[in-house]
Description:
The complex is a heterodimer.
Chain A: E1 3-5, E2 10-14, E3 19-21, E4 24-26, E5 32-38, E6 45-50, E7 56-58, E8 64-68, E9 73-78, E10 87-94, E11 104-106, E12 110-115
Parallel strand pairs in A: 2-12
Antiparallel strand pairs in A: 1-4, 3-9, 5-6, 5-10, 7-8, 8-9, 10-11, 10-12
Chain B: E1 5-7, E2 10-13, E3 19-24, E4 31-37, E5 44-50, E6 53-56, E7 65-68, E8 75-79, E9 88-95, E10 105-106, E11 110-114
Amino acid sequence: AQxxxxxxxxxTVSEGxxxxxxxxYSYGATPYLFWYVQSPGQxxxxxxxxxxxxxxxxxxxGFEAEFKRSQSSFNLRKPSVHWSDAxxxxxxxxxxxxxxxxxxxxxxxxxxxxTP
Amino acid sequence: GAGVSQTPSNKVTEKGxxxxxxxxxxxxxxxxxxxxxxxxxxxxxxxxxxxxxAADDSGLPNDRFFAVRPEGSVSTLKIQRTxxxxxxVYLCASSLAGGTAYExxxxxxxxxxxx
Lengths: 116, 115
């Protein structure tokens, strides 16, 4: 069965500092991997996704993530955080074939606080 | 263009009552998903529709939960005999087609509170 672990429940960074949010997954084959952001009162917004190919993927809002098969990880990074990045971040895994269903399996999320 | 809309945005009901939550997907999206997000948790899958049919309802917690999509567009999630444990944010998402290769666009959710 697929599972996603986000080890950090809360992270606090200073504005302008770099950010890395951790995500580990468990899946039998190469999964489809996603990072979503959820701001208060807003729906989930897709930041980036990895299906195959280049293991470093670029997303919106200056975010990037790196797929490391050997570590079963898909960590999200940003070189310089802005106050508007404060939100809840979710890592998700999806099956790469229809036999395993179509739903996304989400981690519990990491809450990002940005201080001045 | 218009995104996924969900109504109501908030619903407070008494234990034992029946509720309906509505999802209006993006026009042209054939796939529709319902997820439930409890406090402090990530969204959990409930049911997936491809067109009018429920292609995967493995996430529905019990037979009090039911969902329909009669014309392949709007979907309604129905909860009978609500319990306090049903309190959560119910999220709807739609995508162009089924399969996780297609981006799922999420609505803002319906916050259900069972008192």
